[in-house]
């Protein structure tokens, strides 16, 4: 059965390659395209075999088990883990857009934890292209010899990822620059790989109707198409720089437009280390908590106020640049993937966060209807703040044991059709929000930031995002009144969060005292027994 189902996909991949080959040039360039097509068909074949084995594992390992039983849940987790490991290996072998797809899936909070934890180790790295190939791309784009453009150009890349590599150079005016050069033949490769992923998605949906990945694939294809146009990345970079022109902590590299095309991007060279490099932060006396606070303030303003969101905030795209005496700037790189949030969505998302902080269950459910998720809105508090919609736990603290037990029972009652329905009903903007928030939370965790830092920042940004709209529609006196109202609303939410922080600290101190007493009793007991 699985062999019969694989055949149409292999034929389709081959047909896609033939169609592209028919429209490709002949000669040397034609031979390189033909080579790319053969590699594409090889990647497609590996993908089909891997997905075929994964589907068989799910179908036969879980056959005959009651979906609500403990045995089913244990075996399902094992199948998830086996499948995630197979997909990890596939992404590593196929490279390129498969690595991007694996990273994209791992950052989605709605996928099973076995997938997110396994695929999260994927690194967007690649074997660098030969310098002569990179040199040829630059010279073809500008119609000049390389050293007529640059005074110096380091032949060895400082970074190499799945779609491009970056070289350090120097212009004739002695300006240091970073030059991002796209690998040759990427558009043809993307067409084949996306076509294969689309066929595989349909194949999975055919065998398992409850699994629907079309929306995720569409969003992934959009993001990759945007990322391949470096002029779009340059425009995104300039717009972001404009949004944060009054923020002295945020640094966006300057773009040299005369040396920028769809395939080559030339920017100001900025020094720094990855945002989660704790050893570097310690050596430079920079507080990780302050870095975390600056980072979440940056993205909070992006999401809630500007509605223009960087879609790939992994540590390699955010550098910490020291400025002496513990001060620093955050250098934001790689502006290829951005999402401009729909205005109504942005305002509703601001309202959702205000409701989440206040745990206004009626408002959360009402906004769930606005977002189109209906009954699944009750899971928003769990996704974003780590507590249930009926929670009595203080904001920013762990759920009680009883709440955890009830939530586990509730989640165990969900089937794949529920999860699929939830994913299908989410507005497209939500995918970007979930991915970005997931990546940020991971970085904040690595920096050791308290949970309330994110909650407090998002609360403040949500209120400012709501009042920004009112200010745009109001006169001067009205704007003054709104400033006061914004500050009062923020103070109210801050009091709620600060109380939660104090409760968390009190519980932590209480636990330390209990542990210390327990240790003292054990030591006393051991001493007594020794004397006896």
UniProtKB/TrEMBL annotation:
Residues 1-21 form the signal peptide. Keywords: Signal. Pfam families: ABC1. InterPro entries: ABC1_dom, ADCK1_dom, Kinase-like_dom_sf, Mito_struct-func_regulator, TAT_signal. Residues 122-366 form the ABC1 atypical kinase-like domain. SUPFAM superfamilies: Protein kinase-like (PK-like) (SSF56112). The keyword Kinase does not apply. The keyword Signal applies. Belongs to the protein kinase superfamily. ADCK protein kinase family. This is ABC1 atypical kinase-like domain-containing protein. It comes from Zea mays (Maize). The gene is LOC100279251.
